[in-house]
Amino acid sequence: MHGGPALGPVFERARYPDATHVHWWHQPLAKPCAARPYLDLLEATLTEFRRVAAEAGQPLTVMASSFGAHLAVHLARHVPELIKDIVLLGPTFNPEQAALRLARRAFRVHTDHPNAGKLAVALGMYEDDPGRPRFWDVFGALSQLPDVTELYFGPNGGAEASRSFAELIQQPGAFDGPTSVATSDDFSALDHTPVRSAFEGPVSVLFGAYDPMIDADQDRAIWEVIFPQAAFFKVETGHFPLLELTLDACLSPA
């Protein structure tokens, strides 16, 4: 389950064209004027997973990247019996704080850019008055800086993944802005206090050593509440281990 929200699985499909045993689910777009798009996404996730598990006739591995980790938590809460194991890749528990970390990193990298001042002002206004309107101001200012997507990737082998990501994100279906905004805002309106999951099987959590969006120590403490049995690994990637490592390395971290 990919992240975003509203990123399509075009990146994974391009990276692993022969992985026919993996179901790269293309999550549905938010319906126009949907009252609760995030809750709609959770329901769609549960419906799709039940369908695929029924076809397989056995419990399945759930692999979730970034924001997709919340979809994995939802499945673990409602159908733990259908899950063999869970692999979380760069899971973002608080997407708003993760995006703000990225913005601060981008400002440090592009301090001399003509639009860096706009980002600094937006970040300052958010600090004075946190909330979704100020957050989207930060996001808008961030989008005016160059090569922001490069920051997602690590320095060791991430250059090729970064180029591919920059090319693919321009393709139709790779990303849907309105769905991302609607789903993110609906998500932020809910209580996300971490609660222990009913799933007691194996869980692996991979954090990228160069991830600009995650504080691994802080986030590990949160995921340990949800999955006390989880094994944690730090890998030499940025925010998307699946796009920098191999599929086998992500599923079976050493």
UniProtKB/TrEMBL annotation:
Keywords: Hydrolase. GO terms for molecular function: hydrolase activity. Signal peptide: none annotated. Residues 58-244 form the AB hydrolase-1 domain. Gene3D superfamilies: alpha/beta hydrolase. It holds the Pfam family Abhydrolase_1. The keyword Glycoprotein does not apply. This is Alpha/beta hydrolase. It comes from Duganella margarita.
